[in-house]
Specification:
Elements: H1 10-14, E1 23-26, E2 29-32, H2 43-60, E3 64-71, E4 74-76, E5 79-81, E6 84-91, E7 111-115, H3 122-134, E8 139-144, E9 149-153, E10 160-163, H4 180-186
Parallel strand pairs: 7-8
Antiparallel strand pairs: 1-2, 3-6, 4-5, 6-7, 8-9, 9-10
Length: about 190
């Protein structure tokens, strides 16, 4: 386990070696993404991650990248912030297809998806979604595997919670035609 010094620069944080624990840079500190020594996501979390990756990757072909647990360079409260979203979609309009760096995402993506883990609350995810929006991420989906819902956060409107056969279509995700029911069925937890 990495025991970082109290205040890290963005460069120091990004130079950390990869390991078993996923860290996010928050207010100059490396903070484990999962609390209480929860080393890895559980079955529902992992299954939803896989289902979303399959469905979104099929749609995103030729449009952009869908990446699992990719650190994103953002700012929060005028400080460097490097969250690690469960899934990220960034279009080739924002990050060209020939960008091939082994680095954190250098732009605010169109979509980040956070899946609530057993050690997290919806309230915590709502705060994180608000921080993403303030950092210029266009959409944030918060997936609740227990309630089988997806709450979509917008920069200029109230959040909307989708369930069952509600459509997740959105003009920033042109042509994406999926529902929460399809996602949970693909994950095998419908």
């Amino acid at each position: 386990m990495i025991k970082p010094k109290t205040q890290l620069t963005l460069e120091e944080f990004l130079a950390f070696p990869e390991g078993d624990i996923i860290y996010e840079l928050i207010d100059g500190e490396a903070v484990p993404k999962f609390k209480n020594d929860e080393m890895s996501p559980k079955f529902f979390h992992s299954s939803i991650t896989g289902a979303l990756f399959i469905l979104l990757s099929a749609w995103a072909t030729g449009k952009g990248r869908v990446v699992i647990e990719w650190a994103i360079r953002l700012t929060r409260n005028q400080k460097d912030w490097v969250p690690v979203a469960d899934l990220t979609y960034v279009s080739y309009n924002l990050l060209p297809s020939d960008w091939l760096e082994d680095d954190a995402c250098p732009v605010a993506p169109e979509l980040v998806i956070e899946i609530i883990s057993p050690s997290q609350t919806f309230g915590e995810m709502t705060e994180k979604a608000t921080d993403y929006l303030k950092a210029k991420v266009e959409r944030v989906w918060v997936v609740d595997t227990r309630a089988k819902t997806i709450t979509i956060f917008y920069p200029d409107a109230l959040p909307q919670t989708k369930r069952g056969t509600d459509s997740l279509d959105d003009y920033i995700l042109e042509g994406l035609q999926i529902t929460p029911q399809q996602i949970f069925q693909q994950a095998g937890i419908a």
